[in-house]
Design goal:
Length: 309
């Protein structure tokens, strides 16, 4: 292992900081399927860490382990220095107040207005007076540009607005960490670019730490400070965004000198048909899974050019 592998692209400041999320050799199984195979990952205060990987690689599972929804079967996960595996339900609830989650589906309550949706965590987890809650709700809706839509119901707004409302709700308790699972899934390219910009703006304004899980490369490269690449439950590499950009843009000659994991990462970043993944083609349609949105650029036979653009 080179020194770079140990630094994981951390900044000078991060080398002397304590991480807010620390995963050590995390193992997660469902039945006899091992979905996470010894994951190591550290996330530092104020950074945006993007976890990438194809569909089924274990991204959502890792996120659910981090937030304590799943118990790990091996290794440890610490949030703010606390071992999630050792906390009882009360302890978990205390930690949960310190982070916000934006899930794939947004998950707003349809029978409640946007304002009521955002107020809910404040009513459940604080003793604040209703007037104070109302002010908090206005501030959070303003942050995501929805203050004038406070009294609308989820059915009355667009998909992008629902995502923003979900984000306002995730921000309700002024979290130190925000966890996002595929924040731009199901949105058109313009709206998903707007969500990316909102994530960047919020991270800067509020100084929160963000952990974003996505299979969308454009989005990943737009918002990440550091990136991590998961593949079939294994962490291929963790490094700063610039390193992944460099790897993506390497020419074929330079790529041939890389180890197989790095070649695999480059192939994934480029959505390219040729590379180590070619050898997996015949395994149960794995390439479809792996490439997700770039599947139309993958050919069945490695030596043949794609038949359509
Ligand atoms: N609750 C569960 N029970 C059983 N298998 C699961 C469960 N959640 C995820 N899996 C399996 O774990 C693997 C990884 O899933 P997931 O973490 O959702 O991947 P990703 O988010 O990267 O698409 C998949 O094979 C999936 O079928
Ligand atoms: Mg997922």
């Amino acid at each position: 292992m080179s020194q770079d592998d140990l630094y994981h692209g951390r900044t000078e400041a991060q080398l002397s900081q304590e991480p807010v999320v620390r995963c050590r050799e995390v193992i997660k199984r469902f039945g006899d399927q091992t979905v996470l195979k010894g994951i190591n990952l550290e996330v530092y205060p104020g950074e945006t860490m993007v976890v990438m990987g194809g569909s089924g690689s274990g991204k959502s599972t890792l996120l659910r382990c981090m937030i304590g929804t799943h118990k790990v079967d091996g290794g440890t996960i610490e949030l703010f220095g606390q071992n999630m595996g050792e906390l009882d339900e009360d302890g978990l609830n205390d930690v949960r107040k310190k982070f916000g989650i934006l899930f794939q589906s947004g998950a707003l309550f349809n029978s409640m207005t946007l304002a009521e949706n955002v107020a809910l965590p404040l009513q459940e987890h604080t003793d604040l007076d209703q007037e104070i809650i109302d002010i908090q709700v206005k501030i959070k809706l303003e942050l995501v540009g929805l203050r004038e839509h406070a009294d609308k119901y989820p059915a009355q707004i667009s998909g992008g607005m629902k995502k923003r409302a979900g984000l306002a709700r995730a921000l309700a308790l002024d979290p130190k960490i925000l966890f996002y699972d595929e924040p731009s899934a199901g949105l058109d390219p313009v709206t998903s670019a707007q969500i990316d910009q909102l994530i960047i703006a919020l991270t800067k304004q509020l100084g929160v730490t963000s952990v974003v899980v996505t299979h969308e490369m454009d989005s990943a490269f737009t918002i990440a400070d550091r990136m991590a690449m998961l593949d079939r439950g294994r962490m291929l590499c963790v490094d700063k965004r610039e390193w992944f950009e460099h790897l993506r843009d390497l020419d074929d000659e330079a790529t041939a000198k890389l180890d197989e994991d790095r070649q695999l990462v480059r192939q994934f970043l480029r959505g390219a048909p040729d590379g180590p993944l070619a050898a997996r083609r015949d395994e149960q349609g794995y390439s479809e899974d792996l490439f997700g949105m770039t599947v139309d650029r993958v050919t069945r036979t490695p030596s043949v050019e794609p038949t359509r653009g």
